[in-house]
Amino acid sequence: MINKLAVLFLTMTTLSLYACNADQGSIQKPISSTTQIQAVAEAPTKEGIPWFDGSIDEAFATARTENKPVFLYWGAQWCPPCHELKATIFLREEFIEQSKLFVPVYLDGDTERAQQYGEKFGVQGYPTVIIFDPAGIEITRIPGGMNIEQYVGVLELALNALHPVKELLLAVQAGQDIRDDDWQLLANYSWDQDRGMALGDGNLHLALRNMAAACPDRLAATKSKLQMLAVGAWARNKKRDESLAPQYIVDVQRILQDRALARDNLSLFITAGADIVKAMPGKEQAAALREQIATLLATTVGDTSMGVLARIEAIYAWVEVNKTALPEDGELSAAQQDWVKAQVAATRSQINNYQQHTALNTISQIYLNAGLVPEARTTLLEGIEISSQPYYFMSGMAYLEKQAGNADAAIAWHKQAWDAAQGPATRIQWGSNYLFALIALSPDDIEGIRAAGTILFNELAQQKDGLHQRTSGRMNRLSRMLLAWAEPAAGETTTAQQRQLVLNQLRSQMDKLCSGAAPEGEGFATCESFLEPGASA
Fold this sequence. Notes:
The protein is mainly alpha-helical.
């Protein structure tokens, strides 16, 4: 599942992803840790991927000794995009063979100190794939949505890279010439996951726009990718310059009219197609693009030479693109809904066991966004039954119940999801979801909120260096919600006092948890601001 789809679903189920404020210079330093990397068997082959079995420190030491780059895969057991990587790229012999040229490292988000290293690496969402050179300097980040040929091609570029993406970007900005392979590396970089590592404080849209303009015309496919990346960044910018729309619609239509270029940019049309249509200031411009992009996506859905997960993602994007023609609360027509159901049924018959978790997640989103709520519910319930991470789908059920006005049922699903969640960081994520739901949907359940908070902080206290990255972000959000919850209403006395007692208890637990926190990183900032009125977090 592509990263945008994951973000949409996690937002939908309140499993929001939080940004990292990574040290910009840290990518130039070799990584060191005693953290043990989780070794996993990802593929049903004779040998599979030779994931490094040891610590982060040992992995980078091995890379230096053997003069091999590091392939770092940061993932989680429950995340649909991670399941997609495992079900597509990681299963393929081409990738398995090429992985032997790297030191392949799988860092699971629930591994001890994994969130701390999520901060250091400047990652935010699962999955993030980063290539480091043998000295530990970051070369590039690989985006999702690629087929095996594209993925292997990017790895080949990384193996032969003379400069990291950060240096290449500076060279382009300085007007210097770079190699054709360098242009391909820039076009295939995961800019949405950069987190300021290569871009720094620069403007993403402006950087991509300038790269697209500087890329030689002879590199048609590479130039088109940079152009589409620029258009996508422009479309998602709420302060975008609408005077650029005429030029961008010409660029997009030219790419759509070229079959090869359209296919090269398919993942960008899937992730950004609806955003681009919505960004067009003129109705005629929007309608023309809507029809062309929807046609490309419908053709992709029916193309059996494409992977089944890509075709399911194309259904999702088709729904989103067609919804741009509707008012905010509008629904697809009955004919459009029938088309969606028929396409989902056709693709579902081709899903294998490795693809189930990812496919059911996307299908539930397709149904929900198409206004087919009963079908979405059935799909989520099926996911609960067959997935090894049922708590992920339980959160989706909580969202459906909340939308239906069933607060008690929504809270119950969140509690059931927390009970089923496994892994330290995962349990904090789903436990905080439950607490968020209690505060939002049952604010008068003071004892329930106190009890849930107590358990959550007790679990967090048992983790070594657990207050980092995603967990730190969730604690910041919890702090804001609790402060707002405890704000007394007019005439309240006893209730306000009871809520303040809860805050005092949780603040005391956080103080104990933070007693040994080093004055650096997000964890320390969270410690300083937690439940402090007026503090920024």
